[in-house]
């Protein structure tokens, strides 16, 4: 049965989606696809987290100047190869390294300051706004190819309209504000600032589930005690799922049933103790009508990536911001539709940023969700779609079709 699409490219509301998978999954398909904001108005989750409201980046990799750019709870980045999507994603890793006091290690792993700075730039400026909290920094490169803080600023607009600012010129390679011992008058203020910033920035998670080779960590045994959060490469996926199965059964069952939509043969995970080390477990699984324990290497790469994505997007306590770089890799068109609904559901609870080149995935979102990334005059340029100009097209074409027709972005320039 071939999926029907309406004139905007979305799966038609009246379509029996479960029929594309199997009749016994109708109830599960309904659960997933009813999350779509196109067919009903969803309620905001009660435990909605605070994501980044606005972002300024100047002098980071291919991003020469991006100033006060608005980020919403759902942000889908599209653009050609080399436009700067991955550099934008990398900046969030940079922010997290600042909050974790591991900036020096991050700069070294990236190959030094020269690899992070825009062509010939001698400074890197960033500004992050979360509701009424503003964190601004400026870095300069050193002669030994590291970065050091030239200045840090925290600003807080209090509820009564009274502003407060904490500034420092440090010359250090790690944040001095987070390490500073405050005096009695500013102690409560600094702690409030620190907790809010750390809560938002340190809980950003950039997920990369691309490595599904035989040597991938997700296919190896992992410690059952490593369950506090899902790691960026899903290396602790087995332990995390075991934790959910024991402590968050509803979310575990949602993950399991969603996987069954994309892979109808899948039944459940085993998550047994390792015979060699009872402290470890492995991502073993079973298929329907069989009790044979399959090894994680005996599942397709695309299915394994979908398992990782479903777990990340349906986890009970998600990060403050979930970032996915090319999540469509290796996924079937039906799995892409499922992924889009999972992304939209997750965005009701936390901030989601996804960078993609999939026309099929783009077609599942609204124009206001899209951020176009282009490379112009040797720099990355970011913009929202011009909704007024799209009105004449959007009723007859999906966003993916408009992108393929080159109506959402310009062709890459020769430089």
CATH class of the domain at 206-404: Alpha Beta
Distance between the termini: 47 Å
Helix proportion range: 25-40%
CATH topology term of the domain at 206-404: Rossmann fold
User: What would CATH call the homologous superfamily of the domain at 206-404?
Assistant: P-loop containing nucleotide triphosphate hydrolases
* Mean of all residue-level pLDDT scores: 84
- What pattern of helices and strands is seen along the backbone? HEEEHHHEEEEHHEEHHEEEHEHEHEEHH
The tally of beta strands, per DSSP, is 16
Radius of gyration: 23 Å
Named CATH architecture of the domain at 206-404 = 3-Layer(aba) Sandwich
Instruction: Provide a count of the helices.
Output: 13
Largest sheet: 6 strands, antiparallel
- How do the strands line up in the largest sheet? 2-1-4-5-6-7
Look at the helices and sheets and give the structural class. Answer: alpha/beta
* Low-confidence parts: 1-48, 181-185
The backbone outline, from C-alpha atoms, is: globular
Strand fraction band?
15-25%
Walkthrough of the structure:
It is a single chain. With 415 residues, this protein is of the alpha/beta class. The chain has a domain at 206-404: Rossmann fold (3-Layer(aba) Sandwich). The protein is 31% helix and 21% strand. The protein has 13 helices and 16 strands. It has a 6-stranded antiparallel beta sheet, with helices on one face. Strand 15 (370-376) and strand 16 form a beta hairpin.
């Amino acid at each position: 049965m071939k999926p029907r699409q309406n004139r905007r490219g979305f799966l038609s509301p009246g379509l029996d989606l479960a029929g594309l998978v199997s009749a016994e999954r109708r109830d599960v398909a309904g659960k997933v696809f009813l999350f779509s904001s196109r067919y009903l108005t969803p309620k905001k989750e009660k435990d909605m987290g605070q994501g980044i409201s606005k972002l300024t980046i100047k002098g980071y990799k291919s991003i020469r100047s991006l100033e006060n750019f608005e980020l919403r709870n759902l942000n889908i980045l599209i653009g050609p190869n080399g436009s700067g999507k991955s550099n934008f994603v990398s900046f969030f890793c940079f922010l997290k390294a600042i909050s974790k006091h591991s900036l020096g290690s991050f700069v070294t792993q990236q190959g030094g300051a020269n690899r992070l700075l825009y062509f010939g730039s001698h400074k890197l400026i960033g500004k992050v706004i979360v509701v009424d909290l503003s964190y601004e920094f400026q870095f300069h490169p050193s002669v030994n190819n590291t970065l050091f803080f030239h200045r840090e600023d925290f600003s807080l607009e209090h509820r009564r309209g009274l502003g407060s600012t904490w500034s420092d010129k440090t010359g250090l390679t790690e944040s001095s504000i987070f390490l500073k011992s405050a005096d009695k008058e500013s102690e409560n203020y600094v702690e409030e600032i620190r907790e809010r910033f750390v809560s938002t920035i340190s809980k950003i998670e950039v997920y990369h589930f691309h490595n599904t080779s035989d040597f991938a960590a997700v296919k190896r045994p992992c410690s059952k005690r490593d369950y506090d959060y899902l790691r960026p490469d899903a290396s602790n996926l087995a332990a995390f799922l075991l934790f959910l199965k024991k402590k968050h059964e509803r979310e575990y069952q949602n993950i399991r049933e969603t996987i069954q939509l994309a892979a109808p043969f899948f039944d459940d995970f085993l998550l047994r103790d390792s015979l060699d080390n009872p402290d470890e477990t492995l991502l073993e699984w079973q298929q329907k009508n069989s009790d044979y324990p399959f090894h994680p290497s005996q599942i397709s790469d695309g299915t394994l990536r979908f398992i990782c994505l479903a777990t990340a997007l349906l986890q009970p306590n998600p990060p403050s911001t979930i970032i996915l770089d090319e999540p469509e890799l290796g996924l079937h068109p039906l799995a892409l539709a499922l992924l889009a609904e999972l992304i939209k559901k997750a965005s009701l609870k936390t901030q989601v940023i996804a960078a993609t080149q999939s026309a099929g995935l783009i077609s599942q979102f609204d124009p206001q969700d899209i951020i176009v990334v282009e490379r112009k005059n040797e720099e990355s340029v970011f913009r929202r779609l011009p909704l007024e100009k799209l009105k004449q097209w959007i009723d007859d074409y999906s966003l993916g079709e408009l992108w393929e027709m080159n109506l959402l972005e310009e062709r890459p320039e020769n430089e």
